[in-house]
Structures are given as structure tokens and as C-alpha cells.
Write a structure and sequence with these properties.
By secondary structure, this protein is α/β, with parallel strands linked by helices. The protein is built from 12 helices and 14 strands. A hairpin with a 5-residue loop joins strand 13 and strand 14. Helix 8 (191-208) crosses helix 9 (233-247). It is globular, with a radius of gyration of 20 Å.
């Protein structure tokens, strides 16, 4: 991963930032995030985007940046007030995309931003990739048949063993299963899958720089099955995985009833929670990271990040979608992207 654990943080890590779908809020939040001069003190951002898309985002946000097109990440100056960007050549004129609209051109552009950023990180020209939100329908419309970012990264890095980490609001959660039905999620809970996720959880904590890596494993069933009264997944799969992880020396607790494990983690008892399925992990993260103004119905806070653990490169991301309803209106909140950039900087400093 990039320069590795021993690299000097005084030499700022180069981070590739793919802006996501041009028709969504990705370009806007990228501009807003890079208005934070502190980011440039700790990293060299390289934006993967088309110039016309960035120019439009500057108009939307009212920000003043110089745009400097480069050919390789190593050419970036990393100076606050200037956006070093690598062009995809897909969006070359106005009218090829429209805010809040699913389109083939914007899907193709967002895909090209991603794969170029991955290629540069795999070639060690960049120390990590930070991704803005994409529209899955647009990418598929452009002929790239992936369920989302994670699958693209897994394919282009030839990675089979990976997991989804969410972090924000004082919680860290990694998932045993993600984008499957509840019925399929239950069927997928095996000792091997749970144990693998526990190992990925430990790896995530290493990247975060945690010394005493305390891992909690959530149960699948109510009350973690109450000794078999409410299901047998704990006895058959989850407990054997925990026992093997303990035997390997990991600091691990569980299965903890899912209705209390996140309260305990927020209370400082655990550094990360291994969640069994998508909503078990996503709901608490978004409850602590997202806030909505009851008067306006708008999000007043949108913090938290998504990261893929197990890849040969660093990848962090915003923890929200393209928000087509806000696109082009200068209403998007950049906090999640700032969090993702900061987490990528932390990961780069601890990567082995």
C-alpha cells in the first residue's frame, strides 16, 4: 500500500480523489472539501475529473480555484488554492450531462475516473484512493456491470478477500454480509466468513493506528440467540469463529446481543464491531453520523466514511449517495468527504 508503514509523514501522501458521477453532488463536495487548506498541509490531493465538470462545480459553489491539468500524480504540486486534476476525456463539452439526471456519459466518466485512480494506486503512483458517490444505474447504462464501487475495486485489484468498514460518530463497524437479502444474509453466516471478517476488523484497526485492538462480534439473532432459544447461527458459526480468533491471540468479545453492542462500543468498551448484515451495521452508524434539521428537512450533519479493507491499496469513500435532489444547487454537505480524506491520510501513515 503506497509508501508503507515506514514512510515519513512529513512527505505528504498523494491521494487520488475520484469525484463520482458528474450529475450528482460529488464535484461540489470535492470543491468544498479542498477549500480546507489544512488538507494540503497533510496530503497532496489529485482529483480525477474532467475540466468542464470542475469548472461547473466552481460556478455552483462560488469558490475560486486554479485548475491545473496534470498527466501523472507525481506532477501534482499540492498547493492550496490549486486543484491538480487528471482528465478522463469523456466530458468535453456542456450538454453531455445534466445535474440530477442519470446518463450514459456521466456514468462512463465516473467509471473512467475510478479505474484510472485504481491503476495509479496499484502502480504506487498514489498512496490511496478516495471516492465520491457514483450512480450505479448510470455506470451500468455505460456498459460497466458492477453493483458499486466495492466490486469495481475488487475486480480491478484482483482481490477476493475484502470487507466493508464504516466509521463515524465514534463507531467503527465491519460487515460479514452486505448487499444481499435478509434470507441470503442468514444463509451466508458461516464460521469461515465470520472469522475472515474478524481478521479484517483487526487489520482495519491496525490501519487506524489502534494499539489495544478490542473487537466485539455482534450476534445475528435477538439476544444473540439466548443460548439457542432464538436460532442456532451463534452456536454453529459465530462462537466457533470467535474461539478460533481468541486462540490466535486477538482481543475479542462476543457474541454480544446486537441491541446493546453499539451502545457499549460508543461507551468506549470496543474499538470495532463485527456486524452480521448490512442494516445491523449501517443503521447505528448513520444514526450517530447523520443529523436532520426538523424544520427544514435537510441534513445538517453528514459525517462518516466507508472503506474497503483487504485491498492491496487504500480506498476510503463518502458514506452517502449522489443526492440528485441537491445536485447543482450548492446545498451539499462535504463533511463525509473530508472525513474520508482524513481517514485515507491516517491509513497511509499506518499501512504496511
Amino acid at each position: 500500500m503506497g509508501r508503507g508503514k515506514g514512510f515519513n509523514m512529513n512527505k505528504r501522501p498523494i491521494l487520488g480523489i475520484s469525484i463520482g458521477d458528474p450529475a450528482g453532488i460529488g464535484p461540489e463536495i470535492c470543491i468544498k472539501a479542498l477549500a480546507d487548506a489544512d488538507i494540503y498541509k497533510r496530503a497532496v490531493p489529485v482529483v480525477y475529473a474532467d475540466k468542464i465538470v470542475l469548472q461547473d462545480a466552481l460556478e455552483v459553489t462560488g469558490k475560486s480555484f486554479a485548475l491545473r491539468q496534470i498527466g501523472e500524480p507525481g506532477e501534482a504540486a499540492g498547493e492550496s488554492g490549486t486543484i491538480d486534476f487528471i482528465e478522463s476525456g469523456v466530458i468535453t463539452q456542456k450538454g453531455q450531462y445534466a445535474y440530477s439526471t442519470v446518463g450514459e456519459a456521466s456514468g462512463e466518466a465516473s467509471f473512467q475516473y475510478i479505474i484510472r485512480a485504481i491503476a495509479d494506486a496499484m502502480a504506487k503512483k498514489a498512496d490511496g484512493v478516495v471516492t465520491g458517490p457514483i450512480n450505479k444505474e448510470a455506470i451500468n447504462m455505460a456498459g460497466h456491470h458492477y453493483a458499486g464501487h466495492t466490486e469495481i475495486f475488487a475486480d480491478y485489484t484482483k482481490t477476493k478477500n475484502y470487507g466493508m468498514l464504516l466509521s463515524g460518530g465514534g463507531l467503527n463497524v465491519i460487515h460479514v454480509t452486505t448487499h444481499v437479502s435478509m434470507r441470503d444474509a442468514c444463509n451466508l453466516i458461516s464460521k469461515e466468513r465470520v472469522l475472515n471478517t474478524i481478521r479484517l476488523a483487526d487489520k482495519a484497526l491496525v490501519l487506524m493506528g489502534k494499539e489495544n485492538r478490542r473487537i466485539a462480534v455482534a450476534g445475528l439473532n435477538a439476544h444473540a440467540s439466548e443460548n439457542g432459544l432464538f436460532g442456532n447461527e451463534e452456536e454453529q458459526s459465530i462462537i466457533p469463529a470467535i474461539e478460533e480468533a481468541k486462540a490466535a491471540g486477538l482481543n475479542i468479545t462476543g457474541p454480544v446481543p446486537p441491541d446493546t453492542v453499539f451502545v457499549k462500543a460508543l461507551g468506549g468498551q470496543f474499538d470495532i464491531v463485527v456486524a452480521m448484515y448490512h442494516d445491523q451495521g449501517h443503521i447505528p452508524l448513520k444514526l450517530v453520523g447523520f443529523k436532520m434539521d426538523p424544520k427544514t428537512g435537510l441534513y445538517s450533519q453528514m459525517t462518516g466514511i466507508n472503506a474497503t479493507i483487504g485491498l492491496p491499496i487504500i480506498r476510503t469513500s463518502v458514506d452517502h449517495g449522489t443526492a440528485f435532489g441537491k445536485a447543482g444547487k450548492n446545498r451539499a454537505n462535504e463533511e463525509s468527504l473530508v472525513d474520508a480524506i482524513n481517514m485515507a491520510i491516517t491509513f497511509a501513515g499506518n499501512a504496511g
